[in-house]
Amino acid sequence: MPEQNGVEVCEFLCAHESVVSEVREHMPDEDTLFELAEFYKVFGDSTRIRILTVLCRHEMCVCDLATILSMNQSAISHQLRILKQARLIAARREGKQVFYSLADDHVRHILDTAIEHLAER
Amino acid sequence: MPEQNGVEVCEFLCAHESVVSEVREHMPDEDTLFELAEFYKVFGDSTRIRILTVLCRHEMCVCDLATILSMNQSAISHQLRILKQARLIAARREGKQVFYSLADDHVRHILDTAIEHLAER
DNA sequence: TAAACACATGAACAATCATTCATATGTGAG
DNA sequence: CTCACATATGAATGATTGTTCATGTGTTTA
Fold it and tell me: What pLDDT, in 10s, does the model give residues A29-87?
């Protein structure tokens, strides 16, 4: 059976060896691809997408976000935490309130790219 | 307490009304945002990202993908199914084998955009 | 300093999801 | 037609994750 690092990886053997080894050489390292997936995962939730969509227009305090999205404050805070850790949004305190806004225009571009793709079926 | 559609949505009332209503008017409909999240969700898994990365270079049969990614054939097939349903990849049968490839160059662009973003910290 | 407000966070629960195992479908060889 | 190969798929399982509830932290006002 075919093995890699002592672990059998494919019970059948239909490998087109030249293609396989050529692709293997050019694969980005695992860490990069893992980070990439983690990055997309942040966008893969309706609540977070809705938050980002709101912040595309205006910076916003937590309570207003909760009002707009019809969710309780705790749920919003948890999601804001995830968005902030991913550096997609920035926080600014003003008295008792904390205002969140998009970290940079790159986030807008990423959202636009996907919307564009979806528009093309 | 503030209500929307008869459901209380925010136990505190700090609404900046003009901003809130302005944003509400310009929100895309729920379905669009849901689809957008679902779309990103497909990218939010290392296995699928790795598959897409491979297919960026070459079309590939299932068994070769399993070999390259050191995973069993069933796991790969399940993920290919998800990628295909999302129209990110296309399938082509050739005898007993099925070759998968990127659906279009748009997918490449989407991946590149994210890689670029990650590169900028 | 005490109370109220705005937000953050830990624990618990339900739901979703990726992988594995077993098996089914489809194709070509003999 | 039978067998072996390549892939697909349903069910089960373990892990991850979003929301809720309760409570904690930080800030302003009285």
Answer: 899 999 999 999 999 999 999 999 999 999 999 999 999 999 999 999 999 999 999 99
Question: Can you tell me whether residue B29 is helix, strand or coil?
Answer: coil
Non-local (6+) Cβ contacts of B9 within 8 A are: A66, A67, A70, A71, A72, B2, B3
- Residues 6 or more apart in contact with residue A95 via CB below 8 angstroms: none
Closest C-alpha among B71, B54, B49 to residue A11: B71
CA–CA dist A119, A112 (Å, integer)? 10
Query: Residues 6 or more apart from A79 whose CB is under 8 A from it?
Result: A45, A47, A48, A51
Cβ(B49)–Cβ(A100) under 8 Å?
Answer: no
pTM: 0.89
Protein CA at B87 to nucleotide C1' at C27, angstroms = 25
- B4 neighbourhood in chain A, CB within 8 Å: 67, 70
Nearest beta carbon to residue B23 from set A27, A42, A58: A58
Residue nearest to nucleotide C26 (CA to C1'): B96
**Mind telling me how many Å the CA of A116 is from chain B's nearest CA?**
9
What is the per-residue pLDDT across B55-104, written as a single tens digit (0 to 9) for each? 999 999 999 999 999 999 999 999 999 999 999 999 999 999 999 999 99
Question: Which candidate, B55, B49, B54, places its Cα nearest to that of B104?
Answer: B55
